Amino acid sequence: MQMLAGGGVGGVCGSRISLRLRECDRRRHSLGFYSSTIARLSSCSWPLNFIPCSNRLNPRTLSSSSSDSVAYSDSPILSTCCFSQEEDDRDVPSEGLSSVAGGVVALGKFDALHIGHRELAIQASKVGPPFLLSFVGMAEVLGWEPRPPIVAKSDRKRVLSSWAPYCGNMAPAEFQIEFSIVRHLSPREFVIKLSKDLGVRGVVAGENYRFGYKAAGDATELVRLCKEYGIGAYIINSVMDRNKLSMDIYSSNSKDRGQVSSTRVRRALAVGDMKYVSELLGRCHRLILKAKNEEVFTWDNHKLSAPKSCLLNLAPKEGLYEKCYIFVGEELIQCRVVIDTGYIHIELDDVSASSNFGTQDLKLLRIEFGYSLS
């Protein structure tokens, strides 16, 4: 398997004619914070006809986010308020042999769609059509408080499409299963479901991936069971953050070795470190707000304000953010963003640009954050 470099993020802010986006791409190409060195499982080949992997887990394996394993435990999640529930409606594909049949699924929790998740998709794409397989309804089943997603549901397709150049010009697709259906499955029953019900061709998972009821199965068992049921399997190492200072600041627990994770992204957003957020995501963080019912966006001189209840995803901490951009149609306009306890305020650098806003623009806002927090 060919060696890959994991630091490049060209094109991830979108193929826009804006000079700002080209500058964003240029700067991200210069980031060198991540290791995505690829190695094989011991003596394991994964040819185009996809002979199932039959080897034990090797420490020198491939790489992605190890902290995004699926552990079917009842640990609560901290509550975060001020976000819209509008995107909670799910369009879950029917089960049985479906669109994922014959494909290669990356296993994990894909909240942030960060560079570790992208690495999983890259490896899956080397063998077949790549899918991200995750579960929905975990919060309801386990009694967790709802929290805003890092990526708005309506924005996920755009992000995944930006991964296509890394994935053999194939944009990964998402496949979701209701958590209530798989919660009590043993590791063996889960792999049987992948093989018999979903007809997957192979799986890719991080080295610390755990699965099955109460997280009973680990990566080694995943490889063993996949071999038994005729599924190819690859386990990959964590994509590591090479920023030593950030490793210390955003370390979540004693098991955190500095790997890229959705938890790390949330913590960086919580302190407003947008440069670090961009490094972890491999793209600018895009905030989306949508007005509905009685909610309105207000326009006063050169400032547009929207209540936080319109948020469709997670905003950074309260404060002033320079070097931001708001979309008007497909055009980007430079702005500053002020976040307070109840509102998101967008201040345009060019007051005359306000004439470009139409009625539709005042119902849906898309904001991309630069690196500066004042």
Can you describe what's shown?
This protein is α/β, with parallel strands linked by helices and 374 residues long. It has helices at 19-29, 115-125, 138-142, 156-162, 179-182, 187-197, 219-228, 244-249, 262-270, 274-281, and strands at 34-35, 62-63, 104-107, 130-136, 173-178, 202-206, 232-237, 240-241, 286-290, 298-300, 303-307, 319-328, 331-339, 343-348, 364-368, 372-373. Strands 9, 10, 11, 12, 13, 14, 15 and 16 form an eight-stranded antiparallel beta sheet that branches. Helix 6 packs across helix 7 and helix 9 (262-270) runs antiparallel to helix 10. It is elongated. Mean pLDDT is 74; it is low at 1-86 and 88-97.
Short description:
By secondary structure, this protein is α/β, with parallel strands linked by helices. It has helices at residues 19-29, 115-125, 138-142, 156-162, 179-182, 187-197, 219-228, 244-249, 262-270, 274-281; strands at 34-35, 62-63, 104-107, 130-136, 173-178, 202-206, 232-237, 240-241, 286-290, 298-300, 303-307, 319-328, 331-339, 343-348, 364-368, 372-373.
What topology does this entry show?
Elements (H helix, E strand, L loop, with lengths): L18 H11 L4 E2 L26 E2 L40 E4 L7 H11 L4 E7 L1 H5 L13 H7 L10 E6 H4 L4 H11 L4 E5 L12 H10 L3 E6 L2 E2 L2 H6 L12 H9 L3 H8 L4 E5 L7 E3 L2 E5 L11 E10 L2 E9 L3 E6 L15 E5 L3 E2 L1
Parallel strand pairs: 2-7, 3-4, 3-6, 4-5, 6-7
Antiparallel strand pairs: 1-8, 9-15, 10-11, 11-14, 12-13, 12-15, 12-16, 13-14
Helix pairs in contact: 6-7, 9-10
